Amino acid sequence: MKLFIYLFSMMLIFLNHGVFGVGPDEVSVMEGDSVTLHTGVQTNQQEDIKWYFNSVRVAQISGDFSFICTDVQCNKGTERFRDRLKLDHQTGSLTIMNIRTEDSGQYKLKIMRSSSDSEKIFNIAVIGVSASGRDEVNKQEGESVTLDSGVIRTLIDVITWYFYYNRIAEITGDPNKTCTDVQCNEGAERFRDRLKLDHQTGSLTITDIRTEDSGEYKLQMMIINSSFSITRGKRLGVSVNELCPSPPVSVSLIVLISAGPLLTVAGFGIFWICRKHRKTDQEVQICENENFCCSVSSSVIL
């Protein structure tokens, strides 16, 4: 179901690819994505850029940078996007981070110049996804594991894999920029010669996996359009179980087996001594109090 929702959202995005300048841009994203709405301009001293969400001003930047605001700074008491809006000071483009279903709606861009004003509209639909945390993968040491991107790479411009915070693989439209492990980070050799990228899907395969490869892997996908760009993240937890070698025959067991006949003989000898010494009540009492002779003989016989 998750895959269906994802593919459906990707279809909506690319069906509307190229409608820039014709009408409102229809942007379909998934909950948790980050989306950047592009202005298509470079700010200068003559421009004032304002962003509105359903007619409420949520961001503004003046050409001379004398006034810059986002969300609650623009409208006191408005906290819908608190700490989730970012303005590019060079272009005025607006980024909405960790987008939510309630962020769906119309976003209007107004560019005001001394000569003329222009407007641009983005209709954003946010598709909710199950809050299932992260995918978990369990493997035995020495096996291979494939971390699935869940997409067809031709729809994605950049796919990057991270192990914790270290970039370990990346694939783009430029073959010269494709890298794995030590190629992505000089000096990083954890996965040397054990990583393989699928150029069709961007999925990552780790061969001969080791216990130290356990941890969190993060997939970051970027969809770049002339009007907007989307950054999508996915987390996968990998647990690698150590292979247990065949347990060797215990030395103590060998000794016990080897000494078995001697212990049996000794046990019978001790038992005979106990029996022999039961001639007087005092001797019997001593034997019973110590419980040594009889306990040894009983354990050996049993």
Could you write a compact summary of the structure shown?
The chain has 302 residues and is α+β, with helices and mostly antiparallel strands. Helices cover 20% and strands 35% of the residues.
Outline the structure in words:
This protein has 302 residues and is of the alpha+beta class. Helix content is 20%, strand content 35%. It contains four helices and 18 strands. Strands 2, 6, 7, 10, 12, 13, 14, 17 and 18 form a nine-stranded mixed sheet that branches. A six-stranded mixed sheet has the order 1-9-8-3-4-5. Helix 2 packs across helix 4. The chain is elongated, with a radius of gyration of 36 Å.
Write the layout of secondary structure elements.
Blueprint: H1 2-15, E1 25-30, E2 34-37, E3 47-53, E4 56-62, E5 68-70, E6 85-87, E7 94-96, E8 105-113, E9 117-127, E10 135-140, E11 145-147, E12 158-163, E13 166-172, E14 179-180, E15 195-197, E16 204-206, E17 215-224, E18 228-241, H2 251-276, H3 281-290, H4 292-301
Parallel strand pairs: 1-9, 10-18
Antiparallel strand pairs: 2-7, 2-18, 3-4, 3-8, 4-5, 6-7, 8-9, 11-16, 12-13, 12-17, 13-14, 15-16, 17-18
